[in-house]
Amino acid sequence: MANDEKKLHIAMFPWLAFGHMIPYLELAKLIASKGHRISFVSTPRNIDRLPKLPPSLASLINFVKLPLPRVDNLPENAEATIDVPLNVVPFLKKAYDALQASMTRFLQDSRPDWLLHDFAPYWLPAIARNLGIPTAFFSIVTAACLCFVGTKARMAERKSPEDFTVPPRWVPFHTTVSFRLFEVLKIFDHGVTGVEETVSDFYRFTESLQGCDVVAVRSCVEFEPEWLRLLEDLNGKPVLPVGQLPTTAYDSGDDTDTWRWMKAWLDRQSKGSVVYVAFGSEAKPSQTELTEIALGLEQSEVPFFWVLRTRKGPADTEVIELPEGFEERTKERGVVCTSWAPQLKILAHDSVGGFLTHSGWSSVVEALLFERPLILLTFFADQGINAKVLDEKKIGYLIPRNEQDGSFTRDSVAESLRLVIVEEEGKKYREKAKEMKGLFGDREAQDRYVDSFLGYLETHRQPQKVE
């Protein structure tokens, strides 16, 4: 019994994006495997769409469903960013912010030892502090991203979008990490009408950093030691890396036939010859971008497996289409899949020689787990910073594009693909990706990071008050 009393009860509250919820769930599973209890808080539809838990952990992870408040202009049943186009996401944030009351009630009733929260609920640390519950801002983005954002005081130094296109002056070492102008402009302008977004994402980040007790980061010292040190210096509080949290494979039970035909196609391709193309659950190219990507793939003559999302949820009226005749012309060496595909299984296949990606960190981690070099085409959010970090380390190659408006050509797509996958000049990217496997795929190191993190939480938990 005494041993059970030492076990922690940890609440988790991620932002309503699967690119956030899945890393939170991976950390939850690792923590639960050590015997600690997790309360994973989200909305009903999101929880129902999460991967099923291993039976051994089901009793330790409790899913807490908080109904999402209704908000004008947010479609019914839209509970995650995957359900809506980018210009509707501010309404989703408005609904998420309206969870304050139900989240407060949950914390009052459950009294967890720790609360791990995301960047979005900037209002949550103050609520938890009033209840005597310590908080960790668990960032699914890298320390480099958090350092680039800076602190509340330093953010005020930036007066224009152009100020985000150079490395921050508070970074004491040489780096090229910064946004390109078109990436910044996308962050500042979602083209939203009908909603006054009360706070920006930058504000949410800096408030969450300032309000929490400790910062937990999806990262490791071996990958970005200088950024982790700087993050601690900037915020004056402990920074605890929790490892890269690679997604664990799971079988949904209904994907056997789907994978069978995909594997059969991949089996027919030469080793290391195929480019896997996918832009995650959030990013969606414009029609112009889609056309250039498609014609670039065709021009490259590289075999490809493309998982393509043509719309983001039922509310998305801008359905994008492949160029006329593209699939017919490329059917001998390419596949376009517009339904779900098992990304981990595809990346693990020997025929895959590179990954054309949006630079979302979960996708990056999954690719490097299987030694796949990266061809980088960013769309929004932290992707621009991730891509610069990867480019700086020669793990990924940025497709050349106009830095003002973000436009790119089919020629630049074709040349980038051939460089990374085929040509001698791209060997450095292929070799660097192989080096990364030891860092991103080391399960023992991942386990040590979680043990160290839990050791801190156990040591610094608050004594529970007797009501």
Task: Compose a concise summary of this entry.
This protein has 467 residues and is α/β, with parallel strands linked by helices.
Summary tags:
single chain; 467 residues; alpha/beta; Rossmann fold; 12% strand
What does this entry look like structurally?
With 467 residues, the protein is of the alpha/beta class. The chain has 2 domains: 2-246 and 443-459, Rossmann fold, CATH 3.40.50.2000; 256-440, Rossmann fold. The protein is built from 20 helices and 13 strands. It has helices at residues 2-6, 18-32, 44-49, 89-97, 100-110, 124-130, 143-149, 152-155, 181-188, 201-211, 225-235, 256-267, 287-300, 326-330, 343-348, 361-369, 383-392, 410-421, 427-440, 443-459; strands at 9-13, 37-42, 61-65, 114-117, 135-139, 214-217, 239-241, 274-278, 304-307, 334-337, 352-357, 374-376, 396-398. α7 packs across α11 and α13 packs across α18 (410-421). The two termini are 22 Å apart. 42% of the residues are buried.
CATH homologous superfamily name of the largest domain? Glycogen Phosphorylase B
User: Beta-sheet strand percentage?
Assistant: 5-15%
Radius of gyration from the alpha-carbon trace, in angstroms:
22 Å
Question: Helical region count?
Answer: 20
Task: State the oligomer.
Answer: single chain
Strand order of the largest sheet: 3-2-1-4-5-6-7
What fold name stands as the CATH topology of the largest domain? Rossmann fold
Helix content: 40-55%
Structural class: alpha/beta
User: Which of globular, elongated, flat, extended, rod-shaped describes the shape?
Assistant: globular
Taking the sheet with the most strands, its summary is:
7 strands, parallel
Number of DSSP strand runs: 13
Task: List the domain count as a whole number.
Answer: 2
Average pLDDT figure: 92
Determine and state the CATH class of the largest domain.
Alpha Beta
The CATH architecture classification of the largest domain is 3-Layer(aba) Sandwich
Low-confidence stretches: 190-195
- Taking the alpha carbons of the first and last residues, their distance comes to 22 Å
